[in-house]
Amino acid sequence: MSIFLEATATCGTCGNQAQVDLAASVNAARRPDLRTAILDGSFQAEVCAQCGGQMRLPAHLTYLDVKRGQWILVQTAEALENWQEEETEARKIFEQNFGAAAPKPSREIGADLVPRLVFGWPALREKLICSDLAVDDTTLELLKMSVMRNVAGAPIADQTELRLVGGEGDTLNFAWITTASEAPLFGLAVPREVYDDIASEPEVWAALRADFAGRMFVDLKRLVAG
Ligand SMILES: [Zn+2]
Known about the structure:
- The chain has about 230 residues and is of the alpha/beta class.
- It has helices at about 30-40, 85-100, 105-110, 120-130, 135-150, 190-200, 200-210, 220-225; strands spanning about 5-10, 15-25, 60-65, 70-75, 115-120, 160-170, 170-180, 185-190.
- β7 and β8 form a beta hairpin.
- The chain is globular and about 55 Å long.
């Protein structure tokens, strides 16, 4: 089931308030349209009736896709500063719903789910794109690390994030995004070969990979934030 709660949204431009349905939980197997909306950026993107400004609602939901084996707790980008506590909480929520404390049918579903914690919409979208492109999300973070080291002028500021935004054939497409506004700064195409090289050299990347092993917050930001 996909659960919606009624909430009040405030326009960032004019202060107009409106009642909106806020997603508390998305079941992608039953509502593939919601998955599509997350990917194209239209999910929870309300337009202000008064001024036409953006009324995008803060990210705070659980995302379940049994078919693709994904369970993702989505928190706001602002919550990143407390990622350690959020990760502990996410683990607890997953265990209650699909872990040892859950009824048997739920535990059986849980056995095939990879639990993740993300902060903000671009981070959620990235996990969905990973699934579509058969990209391992840990290897992806190692690839980003490599990109940041090798691209001159890469913005490594706290206010930006490098996100996988798509791909075709031999190319993975990334964008540097301003975290607060989600506005892309610039795009970057990386040959998929670079990803494949990292995947095929486990010993070279073992130490960094260990930082993500068994974690729910699989994101470079865990190495730089807090
Ligand atoms: Zn407005």
